[in-house]
Amino acid sequence: MAKQEELVQGGKPSEMEKIKKESNYLRGTIAEGLEDRITGAISEKDNLLLKFHGSYQQDDRDLRNERRRQKLEPAYSFMIRVRVPGGVLTPQQWLEMDAIGQNYGGNTMRLTTRQTIQFHGIIKSNLKKTMQDINKAVMTSIAACGDVNRNVMCNPNPYQSAVHAEVMEWTQKINDHLLPRTKAYHEIWLDHEKVVDSRDDEPIYGEVYLPRKFKIGVAVPPTNDVDVFSQDLGLIAILEDGKLAGFNISVGGGMGMTHGDDTTYPQIGRVIGYSPLDKIIEVCENIVKIQRDFGNRSDRKHARFKYTIDSRGLDWVTNELNERLGWKLEEAREYHFDHNGDRLGWLENDGKWHFTMFIQSGRIKDVEGYELMTGLREIAKVHKGDFRVTGNQNVIIANVSAKEKAKINELIKKYGLTDGKHYTALKQNSMSCVAFPTCGLAMAESERYLPSLLDKLEVILEETGLREEEIVIRMTGCPNGCARPALAEIGFIGKAPGKYNLYLGGGFAGERLNKLYKENIGEEEILDTLRPIFESYAKERQENEHFGDYVIRAGIVKKVENGMDFHS
Ligand code: SRM
Ligand code: SF4
To answer: What is the whole-number distance in angstroms between the Cα of residue 2 and the centre of ligand 2?
Structure first.
């Protein structure tokens, strides 16, 4: 195998490659920077390395101009992302996360589209304490961000408990196997003693880690709530006689792009074969290593696995994988996905009950008249099963015994918590990314705006008789695609304050990308554009025809078969 340095694609390594190489396995000068009390920030280089530790330096964008006017440094604070493999955490862990939110994170926490938990607004002097509290909860933020494998997603699947347990076990194994091995995290945050002159061993990543982030998600058909085709590596569980037998392997999905740069595009993962269960760790490791060795290390905009694959071809990646494995992937098995949304409300399986709660945009906090954070805390105090964060930013109170159900239900009622079933099916299937005020890349509002847009769209849906029609709608504040908008039947991607590109025609089961329909439009035009389309859908749709399929059949947008045609 050629050395990583010889395989640098596209020329000179980027500045980030240098920073990683010189970081001594992700240490940089983070520890020293934390001690500096003169500023609420850390150095630019350390900020890039901090991501590998699961944290980002941010500043409150609502306050930027005012602070500048007052000649103050921006209102710096930190976001921490806690890994939650498969989204599963114990009630005790939920309580500890809740306490962190109360103590350091402005009385809120955020469930994410990758089943993790984020805290925002943590000031520098609290960063280490927060990391330590996360560790006390037997959780970690290592590699929740950065050029490494991220939190591994897994379908939380409340209606197939036995299979879920099995699939979850493999999710955890894959997650753990691909964690970085550097001791930097423990030294910096947990005060573990530094071993002088020791070189950490990173057998999978090497000292420059991956060219870019890498994402793995595991889906159990017919549910695709992890959006398996948006993942760099998607695993589709194949069952035989009701037991997990192995996984189909999908490669090269990804959502991010840059406005105005057609060489960047969202892409859909493609299935290249099947691996038996006992070989899956080996398959995952080798796919990660292919990306490590062949991913573009000079241009970060083209560094994701999807570009590695698209520039060399699917046959190339399959052959490269087979060669490294020393055996061949088997032919992909049949599978079928029905939907990528959550099944809200109570559900019983194998004698256990599961309540999927609707959480708008994953935001957990108390507001006047809706004590969501408190309600979930009170549930966690008595709940004996587990909590599961879904890939749709909702939470499942899972594994409730028949005996305990009444108690949980009482709390649900007491705090007015909701399964969202009184909302339109469109709202139930909505997601939005964080965007303002914390996200440094946001061009438009998302989490703070989508609810009010939905309220207006719901009026049209009521009028057109589409209240019960499940339509997947997603919004992001920029084209990075954190709420996977390119897979939505209706997708909004922010361009500027109050302006969005509107995309239509994604597949209801997350199997197809959507297509640009209108560019740079504001609320009035959004409503004026969607109303006649909803009206004609209501009149002309065929039996069980989803909105995304309809807009293609009606010729409103063209079908996108491959991300490389996304802009054409
Ligand atoms: Fe994301 C960057 C939030 C899921 C694609 N994402 C960011 C940052 C860290 C902004 C930054 O770099 O400064 C955002 C922090 C905002 C904040 O204030 O919290 C951010 N991403 C999120 C979350 C919290 C959105 C949410 O509302 O839930 C999600 C956290 C997931 C997690 O727990 O790991 C989140 N991000 C995603 C997803 C969806 C997924 O992974 O399933 C995507 C699209 C899939 C993909 O990666 O292709 C996604 N985020 C990006 C990108 C574009 C990557 C690219 O290939 O171009 C960026 C920007 C970057 O990496 O340069 C980004
Ligand atoms: Fe920020 Fe853009 Fe991601 Fe939204 S999509 S959280 S605006 S990076």
So the answer is: 36
Q: From the CB of 442, is ligand 2 less than 6 Å away?
A: yes
Which of 377, 482, 484, 512 is catalytic? The answer is 482
Task: Classify residue 331 by burial, with Cβ atoms within 10 Å: 0-12, 13-18, 19+.
Answer: exposed
CA–CA separation, 22 vs 192, rounded Å?
A: 21
Neighbours of 523 (CB within 10 A): 14
- Reading the block at residue 218, the tokens are 């595991």
Predicted TM-score of the model (pTM): 0.97
pLDDT of 4 over the 50 cut: no
Looking at the CA of 495, which ligand is closest? 2
Closest-approaching ligand to the CA atom of 486: 1
CA-393 nearest atom, ligand 1: 28
Where residue 199 falls among pLDDT bands split at 50, 70, 90?
low
Q: Is pLDDT of 556 > 50?
A: yes
CA distance 562 to 488: 15
Do the Cβ atoms of 504 and 518 come closer than 8 Å? no
Ligand 1 centroid from CA 255, angstroms: 9
Calculate the average pLDDT of the chain.
Answer: 95
pLDDT tens, position by position, 351-370: 999 999 999 999 999 999 99
Q: Calculate Rg over the CA atoms of the chain.
A: 23
* Ligand 1 atom having least distance to the Cα of 151: 34
Strands 473-476 and 490-496 turn out to be parallel
